[in-house]
From TrEMBL:
This is Alpha-1,4 glucan phosphorylase. It is an enzyme of class 2 (transferase). The lineage of its organism: Bacteria, Pseudomonadati, Pseudomonadota, Gammaproteobacteria, Aeromonadales. Its EC number is 2.4.1.1. One of its GO terms (cellular component) is cytoplasm. Belongs to the glycogen phosphorylase family. Phosphorylase is an important allosteric enzyme in carbohydrate metabolism. Enzymes from different sources differ in their regulatory mechanisms and in their natural substrates. However, all known phosphorylases share catalytic and structural properties. Allosteric enzyme that catalyzes the rate-limiting step in glycogen catabolism, the phosphorolytic cleavage of glycogen to produce glucose-1-phosphate, and plays a central role in maintaining cellular and organismal glucose homeostasis. CDD domains: GT35_Glycogen_Phosphorylase.
Length: 859
């Protein structure tokens, strides 16, 4: 696709616009005539009056209050109860269909499911949002205010959890038999507060007063052993049997959250495990006066599902983290076996034909030795038969190339917590090294050391990623470039052993939440141009591409964007107390705070721009608002210092009258899904600036592009595939490629070379080591130290000049309204590939081998 030139359109161009306008009218007529068959079959629409009556009924009979005194919270709970009538009926029908047909199902194990709020999403998926809105309006209630009563489900941290939530949405929408399994965290990662510019962590008690969407299932409680020792028993016939004598038993209580498919195609469940002691407390100790001691065991067990990702910098933290992973994996496997045996009565000949288990990153990999233990020790299956089952049912998704994220656990912790699992891991490792590796690389001890599940050293470690690769039938990366690096850089020897095991499934996001629900103005435009089925067939949004230069469509598209920016400006004022101009270019970077994501590169550019404005009082630029949202891990000091730097530098800039409000910097606290739903539709620029080769895929990049933001980013992760679809000329690519990064590292990267050779760069880096922004000149010095003395591990300084040039191009394009509108439309209309529906179909056809089932009202 050629780069369009800026400037006035030719007369020929104007004639083309007239033709396109006529064509647009024809397209709308055709689109209006389209009717998806499923819309009729699965219609769950209710009359406004009936919906209103049901809300009032639940307000009185379920919540126990009246219209005259009900709080907004009570009205919201009544609205949820009304929606649940539809949802749970559909869930029952779904489960009945799957049970009667004895379906093959996928079981998605993930430590994170970042579900966000469900009210709008569920009402939209049921196609009753407008009905509910009208019903509440007649009752004098604003649905938007009610939805603000809902707390985000704090069950994840970032992209990993949000991806899992999108996948559950798509599995339900596409009607594939599935169950999501995770942990019922009492608190999420943390609720972030900003005090004097610094991140403060507070408990994120998302369900302090209960959650009306979830249902407890005591009939499916599981008990999980932990600790203790293993006894070897020898039978009279000489056979050996292992008996685990655990020190404790933990009760896993399941909570089900229904996940609604679009138009009620099906309703699947997310089953989350809450840890409880098998006894509520020690009655004898309590009765003897040990009131506190009687609660100790209860408190210790409940800690397992207390918080997402406890700090594992201490031994106690490591033990808790591994216990969490084992607890939810074991509960999930026991639940899978329970469901299977309802039909197959402990005959495991069909198990691998009916069960697929996807391990979402390394967190649930402990499920591999646990399933071996359950099959061999508890079900009496031979080792070889059990291993054949295990290697058929498990598949593993790798989400990172970072060594610190490829989990390794000390062997001594396994000895304390999971002694039987350690024996099983040793046996798996022994057979793999002596049968598989030896056959391929006879006598090569170095290969064995590299591929071993056990890492030798002063502290022996269990490499969970190696275990996952050895036991999984498929291993996938999450973007084309990432999957290539997984094969070639991360697991090259494993790829040589089993080339057919490695594949790619590029991530995707659900257009139901990330366009239809969060950007209704844009959704309506697509309804008219692409037909109302576009949330099911995102590639049909390409119907907008021919009108990317149509003045009427450009105006409508950008008016929708401006309305979203006005709403976000109000939110910024409310949360941050900063006035921003919606006409300014909104430049957004929202994601987990990590050095490889390079928020500090963004910060250096802001300082560069600020310095130029101060140096030339007459200088005029396109007004820009830089918007950040991020949480830093509590023990990640440098990441927290970067948050502090963004805030204090932003405070200085925002109150500097000399720059005439041409530059604003905003850090939005407590970044979460519900906040992202407000930020993403309003963004002009999507910052995706990770060091090439470090971001596995990204999903915010897809959400931004769908909503008409232009990507300013490196050729990393899914950015490569996004610009291939939308056109590199409609985005702003900068910096080193993966190959460039690898070559510079091999040659020997020295950040001082870039610092000394670029006067502007040196000036802004030195600015961090001054008292210009804070009285304490050392307050921001750690960032400078990481970039210079620390070796700049993510090559921020190497990409700085190219990054500045990309921003310059963005500023120039933003000044050309027609050119910008063209690029925004082309991005939004070109994202069909990045629907999570496409991702799930890839998993289904290449890994899971599932069949979907039409859900009928059969009960």
């Amino acid at each position: 696709m050629a780069v369009r030139s800026s400037g006035a359109k030719s007369s020929a161009g104007n004639k083309r616009s007239v033709k396109k306008a006529v064509s647009l009218a024809e397209t709308k007529a055709v689109a209006a005539a389209k009717v998806d068959a499923r819309a009729d079959k699965n219609s769950l629409k209710l009359d406004v009056n009936v919906f209103k009556e049901k809300i009032v009924h639940h307000l009185r009979c379920t919540i126990g209050t009246s219209e005259k005194k009900a709080s907004k919270l009570a009205w919201w709970q009544a609205l949820v109860a009304t929606a649940n009538e539809l949802i749970f009926d559909r869930l029952t029908q779904t489960q009945y269909t799957h049970a009667t047909k004895d379906t093959r199902a996928v079981h998605y194990l993930s430590a994170e499911f970042l579900m966000g709020r469900l009210t709008v999403n569920n009402l939209v998926s049921l196609e009753v949002y407008n009905t509910a809105k009208s019903a509440l309006q007649e009752l004098g209630i604003d649905i938007n205010e009610l939805c603000e009563e809902e707390t985000d489900m704090a069950l994840g941290n970032g992209g990993l959890g949000r991806l899992a939530a999108c996948f559950m949405d798509s599995l339900a929408t596409l009607a594939y038999p599935s169950v999501g399994y995770g942990i019922h965290y009492e608190n999420g990662l943390f609720r972030q507060e900003i005090r004097e510019g610094r991140q403060i962590e507070r408990p994120d008690s998302w369900r302090e007063y209960g959650c009306p969407w979830e249902v407890c299932r005591p009939e499916s409680v599981q008990e999980v052993p932990i600790g203790g020792f293993v006894e070897t028993q020898t039978a009279p016939d000489g056979s050996i049997r292992k008996v685990w004598h655990p020190e404790h038993m933990i009760k896993g209580v399941p909570w089900d959250i229904p996940v609604v498919g679009f138009r009620g195609a099906s309703v699947t469940i997310l089953r989350l495990w809450e840890s409880r002691p098998t006894e509520s407390f020690n009655w004898d100790v309590f009765n003897a006066g040990g009131y506190v001691d009687a609660q100790n065991e209860k408190a210790a067990v409940e800690t397992i599902s207390k918080v997402l990702y406890p700090n594992d910098s201490t031994e106690a933290g490591k033990m808790l983290r591994l216990t969490q992973q084992y607890f939810f994996s074991s509960c999930s496997l026991r639940d899978i076996l329970r469901r299977y045996n309802r039909t197959h009565f402990h005959d495991y000949g069909e198990f691998a034909k009916k069960i697929a288990i996807q391990l979402n990153d390394t967190h649930p990999v402990i499920a591999i030795p646990e399933l071996m233990r359950l099959l061999v020790d508890e079900e009496g299956i031979s080792w070889d038969a059990a291993w054949e089952i295990v290697t058929e049912v498990f598949s593993y998704t790798n989400h990172t190339l970072l060594p610190e994220a490829l989990e390794k656990w000390p062997v001594y912790i396994f000895e304390k917590l999971l002694p039987r699992h350690l024996e099983i891991i040793y046996e798996i490792n022994y057979r793999f090294l002596n049968e598989v590796v030896e056959a391929k690389w006879s006598g090569d001890d170095e290969k064995k050391r590299k591929l071993s599940i056990i890492e030798e050293g002063p502290c022996k470690m269990v490499r969970m990623a190696n275990l996952a690769v050895i036991a999984s039938r498929k291993i996938n990366g999450v973007a084309e470039i990432h999957s290539k690096l997984v094969r070639e850089n991360l697991f090259p020897e494993f790829s040589t052993l089993w080339p057919d095991r490695f594949c790619n499934v590029t991530n995707g996001v659900t257009p139901r939440r990330w366009m239809l629900a969060c950007n209704p103005g844009l959704a309506e435009l697509y309804n008219e141009i692409a037909g109302k089925d576009w949330p099911l067939h995102l590639d049909s949004c390409a119907a907008l591409r021919p009108y990317a230069d149509d003045p009427q469509i450009q105006k409508r598209f950008m008016d929708i964007k401006f309305k979203n920016k006005v709403a976000l400006a109000a939110e910024i004022k409310k949360l941050c107390g900063v006035e921003v101009d919606p006409h300014a270019m909104f430049d957004v970077q929202i994601k987990r705070l990590h050095e490889y994501k390079r928020q500090h590169l963004n910060l250096l550019y802001i300082l560069h721009l600020y310095r130029k404005l101060l140096a030339d009082p007459a200088m005029r630029i396109v007004p820009q608002v830089f918007i950040f949202g991020a949480k830093a891990a509590p023990a990640y000091t440098l990441a927290k210092n970067i948050i502090y730097a963004i805030n204090v530098i932003g405070d200085k800039i925002n109150n500097d009258y000399r720059i005439r409000n041409q530059l604003k910097v905003v850090f939005m606290p407590n970044y979460r899904v519900s906040l992202a739903e407000k930020i993403i539709p309003a963004a002009d620029i999507s910052e995706q600036i990770s060091t090439a080769g470090y971001e596995a895929s990204g999903t915010s990049n897809m959400k931004f592009s769908m909503n008409g933001a232009l990507t300013l980013g490196t050729m990393d992760g899914a950015n490569i595939e996004i610009v291939a679809e939308a056109g590199v000329e409609n985005n702003f690519i900068f910096g080193m490629s993966v190959k460039d990064v690898q070559e510079l590292k091999a040659k020997g990267y020295n950040p001082w070379d870039f610092y000394n050779s670029n006067q502007d760069l040196r000036a802004v880096v030195d600015w961090l080591d001054s008292d210009f922004f804070t009285e304490d000149r050392q307050a921001l010095a750690s960032i400078k130290h990481s970039l210079l003395e620390g070796g700049d591990p993510y090559m921020v300084l190497a990409d700085f000049a190219s990054y500045c040039a990309a921003h310059k191009r963005a500023e120039e394009m933003y000044a050309d309204k027609a050119r910008w509108a063209h690029a925004a439309i082309m991005n939004s209309a070109s994202m069909g590939k990045f629907s999570s529906d496409r991702s799930i179909e890839d998993y289904v056809h290449n890994i899971w081998k599932l069949k979907n089932y039409e859900i009928k009202d059969e009960i």
